[in-house]
Specification:
6 strands, alpha+beta, globular, four-stranded antiparallel beta sheet, about 100 residues
């Protein structure tokens, strides 16, 4: 069941990518205008299982916003059963790196 919610969350982020800009602006005190390019990176990886079939692992969403300088972000959406709670985590990478 969690995969359904995770997939829906990734689809929303990809299809409505401009809506993440106000969230990033608010949380990280940025001043993105909404005209910046947003590039999402693959989140599907295959694990080599030597004597078994490879397993697919889907990770959380990571993307770069190309503003004055590129900045990387990571978004996780975790759903739990049976209580139906959803936890969203948002991280910025390389903030001090120039």
């Amino acid at each position: 069941m969690a995969n359904i919610y995770d997939g829906a969350f990734r689809t929303i982020l990809n299809d409505c990518r401009k809506l993440i800009i106000p969230v990033i602006n608010e949380i990280f005190c940025e001043t993105y205008t909404g005209e910046e390019e947003i590039q999402f990176f693959p989140n599907e990886h295959f694990l080599d299982q030597q004597d078994e079939a490879d397993k697919e692992r889907i990770t959380d969403t990571n993307f770069t916003i190309f503003g004055k300088r590129p900045k990387k972000y990571h978004v996780e959406c975790e759903s739990s059963l049976p209580d139906g709670k959803i936890t969203i985590r948002l991280f910025e990478y390389d903030k001090t790196r120039r």
